[in-house]
Amino acid sequence: MSTTTPVEVGLIGAGPWARTMHARMLAAGPETRLAAVWARRASAAREVAEPYGTVVAGTLEELFDRCEAVAFAVPPAVQAELAVRAAKAGKALLLEKPLGPDLASARAVADAVADAGVVSQMVLTKRYHPSTRDFLRRAAQLEITGARSCYLHGAFLGGEFATGWRLEQGALLDLGPHLLDLLDAAIGPITGIRGTGDPRRWVELTCEHENGAVSQASLSGSVLLPRARTRIELLGPAGELVFDTSDIDHEECWPILRAEFAAAVRSGRSGELNAARGLRLQELLDAATPR
């Protein structure tokens, strides 16, 4: 098959993230084509599919028949269940964070991906922005002693993203994967982690890294701010390196994400942001959960 042939992607989910990001990104091409949409409510799936002239699959099996890859825009518990089925059906997977609602379900997804030998990729949004990649390149050249970081917003206070699983499980499961992924990548592997607080209000993490550095991470989706705040400050004997996403245009992430997923599917080789990475982050989340 020609490498220029668009990857046929089926979308599972019809919520706000499916409407505003996944469907639009996959339909924009040229590397991918939105082949079908499936959701448990057919009327919701139709609202997502119609603007792009694609079909609504009547069943999950019909969606699988119409695509070679599956993108997920559903709550973690639903993703964990259906991703295993998609992997067993031989489909490449574009997965949201967290991989599952808990460590056992995340491990089941990663195991299914490994057993089936299918391509997988995590939607860790900020990782696909050029400024993030520049930050990680610069961080790799530094001796880092410690770090402070935060991911804060007020989306849990109301609006379409104040959904059931986010309100129930809080910022650790929703925002934690993004920040822990960046800290682990920028400073070095996290070897120890402790969490305090209430993830539904505010949680504070202390991370110990393989190179001896210590980092702090503050997470909350329940604080009123003019805009979301994601900031990492790396400090060491040579000075400070700051990464602040306030000026990032997330629209620049989607073409890179789409192109890299399509390239992985066509080559049959997953990149570093695969299901195994998702499991690694879930292990950290589990260890950090205040008990």
TrEMBL record:
One of its GO terms (molecular function) is oxidoreductase activity. SUPFAM superfamilies: Glyceraldehyde-3-phosphate dehydrogenase-like, C-terminal domain, NAD(P)-binding Rossmann-fold domains. Residues 161-241 form the GFO/IDH/MocA-like oxidoreductase domain. The keyword tRNA-binding does not apply. Keywords: Oxidoreductase. InterPro entries: Gfo/Idh/MocA-like_OxRdtase_N, Gfo/Idh/MocA_oxidrdct_glycsds, GFO_IDH_MocA-like_dom, NAD(P)-bd_dom_sf. Residues 8-121 form the Gfo/Idh/MocA-like oxidoreductase N-terminal domain. Transmembrane segments: none annotated. This is Predicted dehydrogenase.
